[in-house]
């Protein structure tokens, strides 16, 4: 039960993080009060900034619920209002056995995306502007959205078609085979994403020469990360958020920092963030995450199989679905999978947040910039609530909160004050 164990460990670590006494702290750090230093950072946020940050992040909790209800409403449009049987009868006129299935899948993906526009335009465009986080005009937003729609319709149609061919051949144990296929697709997607998908939306370049680059590359070398694998990308095309990431797998793995980070942060802050990203790289977080994702997808597909067969007996005829291999059941499969992911979200969040906490600690050791790390954590409050309750953090946070991060940094600082 890795998920349960991880959550227990996290609960324990949260508890430890809130302990104010530093028993192992060296004598000369006695004057340095971790709690007071943490509070000092938290106080740099004005009440208005904190209110806006809380409202943005807490609104996200509700949006998760609205997105789920919207997804169920969408399934009702396809199944209860009869859009799905109509799509099936149009596409069945096409020749061969494969083409009708492929056409149905492509049309479903296209229509589902378009019908979700009222929510996605509010969520991704208006709300981001409302909180001053976006740099895009509506035209630019739509252009990016249409590009990702094209990628998901083309790639999604082929992937789902292969899944349906497999489902029709494997019978009741389809979900085991589908999980194996999903694992292959996930690995391929993560592998090709830095070369073929991300460059569709942003330009990736080498870091500009200068002391910041020298520091980052030196830290990369010290941790066994090849300098060729460090990139800069123009995230300011889309947003004001400061961020960095690790992407790819095997020969395509790379660390990328965004230009907002480079332009809005001090060299110490950039170094602190890059130390964190190098942590993801060195600790093999992407392959580990893929293993967790495949296990969760497998559990999700098992749930879909169980619920699908229960609903099929009762509503199959009314919704025009004959079996799990019938592509007309795709809206139901999608809705059931979305119900699963909705309830699995705290589990997903905890797995990701645990890796983030590991990368935080790695980054502090690699960059040795506790104040740079703490002040960056404060800057991230633009889009992440700074001081949630422990339960809120455990359920809704996919990264440690600002408070947890500042506290981790200040505790590290207290225990390493004597290091030079
Ligand atoms: Zn991270």
From TrEMBL:
Active site (UniProt): 277, 360 (proton donor)
This protein's record includes keyword RNA-binding: no
Cofactor(s) of this protein: Zn(2+)
Family: Belongs to the peptidase M48 family.
Co-factor: note: Binds 1 zinc ion per subunit.
Gene3D superfamilies noted in UniProt: Metalloproteases ('zincins'), catalytic domain
Gene Ontology process terms (BP): CAAX-box protein processing
Organism: Hymenobacter metallicola
Residues bound to Zn(2+): 276, 280, 356
Domain Peptidase M48: 210-408
Domain of life of the source: Bacteria
UniProt-recorded name of the protein: M48 family peptidase
GO molecular function, one term: metalloendopeptidase activity
Domain spans labelled CAAX prenyl protease 1 N-terminal: 45-203
């Amino acid at each position: 039960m890795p998920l349960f164990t991880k959550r227990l460990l996290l609960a324990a670590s949260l508890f430890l993080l809130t302990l104010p006494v530093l028993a192992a702290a060296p004598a000369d750090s006695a004057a340095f009060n971790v709690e007071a230093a943490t509070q000092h950072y938290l106080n740099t946020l004005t009440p208005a900034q904190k209110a806006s940050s809380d409202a943005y992040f807490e609104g996200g909790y509700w949006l998760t619920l609205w997105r789920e209800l919207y997804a169920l409403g969408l399934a009702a449009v396809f199944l209860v209002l009869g859009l799905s049987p109509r799509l099936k009868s149009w596409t069945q006129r096409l020749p061969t056995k494969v083409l009708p299935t492929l056409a149905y899948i492509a049309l479903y993906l296209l229509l589902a995306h378009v019908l979700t526009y009222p929510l996605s335009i509010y969520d991704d465009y208006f709300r981001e502007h409302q909180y001053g986080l976006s740099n895009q005009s509506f035209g630019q937003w739509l252009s990016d959205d249409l590009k990702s729609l094209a990628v998901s319709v083309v790639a999604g149609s082929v992937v789902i078609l292969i899944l349906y061919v497999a489902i029709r051949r494997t019978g009741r144990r389809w979900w085991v085979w589908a999980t194996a296929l999903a694992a292959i697709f996930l690995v391929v997607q993560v592998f090709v994403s830095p070369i073929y998908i991300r460059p569709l939306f942003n330009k990736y370049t080498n870091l500009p020469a200068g002391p910041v680059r020298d520091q980052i590359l030196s830290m990369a070398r010290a941790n066994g990360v090849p300098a060729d694998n460090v990139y800069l990308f123009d995230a300011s095309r889309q947003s004001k958020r400061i961020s960095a990431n690790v992407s790819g797998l095997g020969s395509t793995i790379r660390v990328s920092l965004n230009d907002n980070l480079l332009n809005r942060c001090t060299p110490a802050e950039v170094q602190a963030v890059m130390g964190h990203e190098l942590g993801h790289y060195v600790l093999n977080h992407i392959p580990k995450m893929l293993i967790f994702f495949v296990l969760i997808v497998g559990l999700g597909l098992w749930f879909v199989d169980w619920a699908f067969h229960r609903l099929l007996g009762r509503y199959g005829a009314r919704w025009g679905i004959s079996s799990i291999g019938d592509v007309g059941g795709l809206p139901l499969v999608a809705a059931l999978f979305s119900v699963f992911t909705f309830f699995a979200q705290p589990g997903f969040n905890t797995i990701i947040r645990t890796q983030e906490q590991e990368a935080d600690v790695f980054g502090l050791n690699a960059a040795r910039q506790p104040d740079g790390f703490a002040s960056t954590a404060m800057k991230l409050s633009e889009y992440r609530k700074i001081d949630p309750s422990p339960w809120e953090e455990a359920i809704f946070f996919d990264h440690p909160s600002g408070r947890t991060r500042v506290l981790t940094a200040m505790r590290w600082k207290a225990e390493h004050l004597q290091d030079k």
